[in-house]
Amino acid sequence: MGAQKKKDAARVPEGLSRQRLQAIVIADSFNTRFRPLTLERPKVLLPLVNIPMIDYTLAWLESAGIDEIFVFCCAHSLQLIDHLKKSQWCSLVRTIVSHKSTSVGDALRYIYEQQHTETSQIQGDFVLVSGDTVSNMPLAELIREHRERKKRDEKAIMTMVIKKQCSRLRLGSDQLFVAVDPVTKQLLYYNEGGEVCLDKSLVLDTSVLVCNDVKDCYIDICSPEVLSLFEDNFDYQHLRRHFVKGLLVDDIMGYKIFTHEVHSSCYAARIDNLRSYDTVSKDIIQRWTYPYVPDISFSGNHPLKLGRRGMYRASDAVQSRSADIGASTVIGYGTRIGNGGKIFNSVIGNGCSIGSNVVIQGSYIWNNVTIEDGCEIRNAVVCDGVKIRAGAVLQPGVVLSFNVVVGRDFVVPAYSKVSLLQQAIKDDSDEELEYAYSSRGTADLLSGVNNLQMESKASELGPDGAGYIWEVFDSSHDEEWWKHSIVPIPMEKLADITQVTDDGDIEDESVVPPRGELKSDNDSISTDANDPNDDDYGYFQREVRETFLRAVEEDNNVDHVTPLINSLRFSYNMASADCAGAIFYSMMRLAVDSPHNSTSELYRNATSIINKSKGLLGFYVKQIDEQIEVIMKFEEMCEETAELVPLFAQIVHFLYDKDVVQEDAILRWGEEKAGADESDKVYLNQCEAFIQWLKEASEEEEDEEDS
């Protein structure tokens, strides 16, 4: 990492090298979304693909050239300080502790107060992030941009990072509306989750750009005035809801906030709930966060070995030969997997013991977990030290906190949160901290020594179980449940999205388009010439491929897979043709990745997969345009994978024989290609004889009909 830091520092612009780059990391979420887990461990130390969340944040800040990082601690501060002392960033990090802070506003006010009592505190512009941020974006250029803007306009005190997102459903976040001056990038309006009420002056200004297809990365470049403004305004508690909105409506002080939209090649996300935890974990596994991925050491971790289909495995993990480990799965160090187990799309931590005939799908198993024979776990989070006895079942959405024991053959209801701690009858508000618990030891909590009023119900996890069920799924509150869990989006919610999509043609001037000016759509926040939808399709195609591979491994039929593909389709706002292309890509990649020693064997792989999956593909190729998309996608794949080139005409012919693509689609594709340059006619020339045969057959049919 030292060499990497020197390399990145060499790229820092000259103007930045004269001034130390500092950052403030808020290591407390100031909400209760991760309870009961955060009653025993700070959120930023929860494992994300087997590495503490905050390690991703610190590794990124160090590689971006930050010289000094102030980590603000509140809940479980001793755990966090101990972790930082043992980390590779101990010389880079300084901790600031306050157990009285209950919000980001309180934290920043406390940091400001320390300016007068401690030396070497914040000396100039600084990066402000939370300790649950995962990013690989460069910061030097962004900081330089902020400082140059501040020189021109002393009121420009903050730059917010935003990023185009395909769907807010991926992160479980609320709808965000922003209004921005497309020339200066000044933020003019900000609203997250509430009713949109634009000022009349913004509506009448034809140059204002209004967007609801961006996400707030919660990465800010701040001038020192930001801290003093929090000190002067004690009603500023929430960074966005109070501070940002307050500045936008304050005409007296005249302070300004600007935006910086990161390019599609950069990753930036915050883990704010369990759905974003799931999404970011998948992004890490699929390497969108490179170089912060499991097979590279960046936090003192032991890198895992990356295998085919995105499988990461520790060198000393022991797996029975009859166990089936699927795509996009991580297996940690010292873990043992018994006979007949099936693990798909999951993260398994270090030191776990998994018995025989265990099924784990779409789940996160943390460290030192024991899972006995015959258990079934789907879309669940299982914390350190948990023991799941033989035959137990975790239904989707379950969260088991630390050291819980699930009894033999016990079925934990869907969406349950289970802890050794009883649940408070009256839960704390979202603005309160876990320090109400953490100011006392966990042992005291577990023995019932605390000042909170507790539920009196007994533990119900079977006669040999240990733990209290906190929350069970309630249909009257399903809006929050599906949004903030790792369970795939329910079909009824997709139906609502589908209805909105189908009604999208209705002209309604009150509806703000995803991105565009109120009066004109000629401008864009970003001046990047690249099509931002390319990034969306890349994410979409990867997730479709992952879903397809899981379906193949689990031998699911079309009825099971189609809803999952539809879920992705509506989440990413894709058309049927996009689905068809992504599914065919997944099919052909599987053919290429399957063992073969010759072109003929590759052809057999491809035809076998097409035969098995033509029903799924057929669901999305009912129109000619969708069938043409499949042929064009195959052209792209041949350009990427040379061994497919000689098979192009044969596979197109096979698709025709199996009624996947129709004659009209092939002929129209041929007509469109006929006018292309000779260099673009490689695949058309391969199909020349086949197309000629189709034309002749079509003419014979017409002659027969005429006669």
Automatic annotation (TrEMBL):
Component of the translation initiation factor 2B (eIF2B) complex which is a heterodecamer of two sets of five different subunits: alpha, beta, gamma, delta and epsilon. Subunits alpha, beta and delta comprise a regulatory subcomplex and subunits epsilon and gamma comprise a catalytic subcomplex. Within the complex, the hexameric regulatory complex resides at the center, with the two heterodimeric catalytic subcomplexes bound on opposite sides. Belongs to the eIF-2B gamma/epsilon subunits family. Residues 534-704 form the W2 domain. The gene is LOC104723241. SUPFAM superfamilies: ARM repeat, Nucleotide-diphospho-sugar transferases. It comes from the Eukaryota. Keywords: Cytoplasm. This is Translation initiation factor eIF2B subunit epsilon. It is found in: Cytoplasm, Cytosol. Residues 505-537 are annotated as: Disordered. Pfam families: LbH_EIF2B (PF25084), NTP_transferase (PF00483), W2 (PF02020).
